[in-house]
Structures are given as C-alpha cells and as structure tokens.
Amino acid sequence: MAKVHPNSAVPSLELPRLATCGNGADSSAAGRKENAAVLTVWRKSLLFSCNGFTVFDAEGNLAFRVDVYGSGTPEDLVLMDAAGKPLLTVRRKKLSLGEKWLMYGGEDTVNPIYVVKRRVTLLPSKPTAAIAHVAQCRGGGPGYEVEGSYSRRSCTIYDKRRLVVAEVRPKEAVGGVAFGGDVFRLVVHSDLNACLAMGILITLDQMFR
C-alpha cells in the first residue's frame, strides 16, 4: 500500500497561533509559492473506532488531528496539534438563517472568532462559484471566499484581494495506487494561518459531507 504522507521535498509546517495573516509575509507570487506548506489530509482518525482527520506535514510527521468518538454528527469538532493540544473548536450555529458554523479558539465555545456561512449557488457546477464565506466575528478583519467543489476535493480559498491563500486538491497516485477521496492535499500559502485553513476545511467537510 502506498504511503499516505508526501514523499516530495517541500517546506515543512510550523504550527502558528490562530490568526488571520502572518507578519511580514512575502506577497509576491514566487515568494508565496516558495513559502507554501503542503499538508496531506487523511479523513480518518488514528484511534480505533473513531472518525475524524489525521494530517501530516511534508516529511510525514503528524501535524494536526481530529478524533470523533461515537457515531452520528458530533456537536463539536476539536482540531488538535500532534500532542493533542486543542487549537480550535468548530460548532454549527443553531437557530440561524442559512447554514452557519462558528470557530472558537481552543476548547472555548462562548466567544467565536470566525463564522463560516454556506452559500447556495444556482450554478453548482461552475468552478468559480462561491460555496462558502468566512468572516471574523469581531474587529472587522479580512474575510475569505471558498470556491470550487469540496466533494471533488478541488476548491480554492481567496482573500478579499483575490489572492489564493489555500487550496484543496486531490492527492496524486503513487506507483499507480490511487488514494480516493479520503486522502487529499491542503496547500497553505504564507498569507494564511495553517490552523485557520484546517478549521475551514473541517467546516467544509461538515457542510458538504
């Protein structure tokens, strides 16, 4: 069986604080490509009888994990680092118009940091159609648009300047072995925090599962 994690040499991931942008990031196309972190996302928990996500960095080291106990749809999804430290919590907003999800720092579920709203489009097959919008709950910081198709593992996250800050892409077959839809790539550019990118990905998975 082919390895889930990448074999190519790409920059390894440094786990940052939950934030919107890095300080002093290179905004040029060459600089952003060079600083991109390529993560391999496995839609499976490493724990027995659990669902969730296991995320590896470019060298095959565990970077993030989500462990969901039991069956059914959980109320909260907690993104953790490799050591099991909670980084953020994703929860669906109840009694709201449309489909909205809230992201909290750590295990806090009182003061949301971001809200992700699903957008209904009349042209779901259009590759540039927005499927979700991400906004800060306080402070009026930068927002993000998600376009493409999560079910096809082919979508792009843009900031309000229309710069690509993250991409979800299929995982290339290795040695003729295809991985299927449960193993795919998350490419995070220097403009976006990797923790926030994973929070958006988890939310998309809940919206379009």
From TrEMBL:
It comes from the Eukaryota. Pfam families: LOR (PF04525). SUPFAM superfamilies: Tubby C-terminal domain-like. This is Protein LURP-one-related 8. Belongs to the LOR family. InterPro entries: LOR, LOR_sf, Tubby-like_C.
